[in-house]
Amino acid sequence: MLSLITLALVTALAGPGPVVMADAGLPVAVEPLPEVIAIDTGAAIADRELVGTADRFPADGGRVYARIVVDNPGPETALAMVWRRDGRIVQSLPVTVGTSPRWRTWSYKTLRKRDVGRWTVEVLDEEGTLIARAAFEVGAPPPAVSLAR
């Protein structure tokens, strides 16, 4: 059985973050996991901020951006942003997240007529575990207005 002094010493050597007892009863440092603190969709990115936040977009050749804000107290890590239309994967993009309490990154999709439907953008960790999701809809573009008589 570990004494309190030994446990305090191992905890101090392990650094910040939780300590878990291994099967042998010895403490093992566990890396803190990244946490998505915000996920939003919008029409553009300006100065690393989302512009035109919305959950409905026209399929007119414009873009929809998905931006995430991640609290990552641990080392640099890889996440994936998975874009789905009507439940089917359309694209999966790797994103690297550095050590920061507010790391911002994004990806985008250009919307065409064939993209009408219900969409999600999922954020997965390195093990493929879902850690965040945003949903939005893509509708048919408005009809063109003719001024001819």
Describe the protein:
With 149 residues, the chain is mostly beta strands. The chain has 2 domains: 1-30, no CATH class; 35-139, Immunoglobulin-like. Helix content is 7%, strand content 56%. The protein has 1 helix and 11 strands; from the N terminus they run αβββββββββββ. It has one helix spanning 4-14; strands at 19-21, 27-29, 35-46, 49-53, 56-58, 63-72, 77-85, 88-97, 100-110, 117-124, 130-139. A 5-stranded mixed beta sheet has the order 5-11-10-7-8, with no helix packed on it. Strands 4-3-6-9 form a 4-stranded antiparallel beta sheet, with no helix packed on it. Strands 1-2 form a two-stranded antiparallel ribbon. Strand 1 and strand 2 (27-29) form a beta hairpin. The protein is elongated and about 85 Å long.
Any chance you could write out the topology, listing elements then pairs?
Blueprint (H helix, E strand, L loop, with lengths): L3 H11 L4 E3 L5 E3 L5 E12 L2 E5 L2 E3 L4 E10 L4 E9 L2 E10 L2 E11 L6 E8 L5 E10 L10
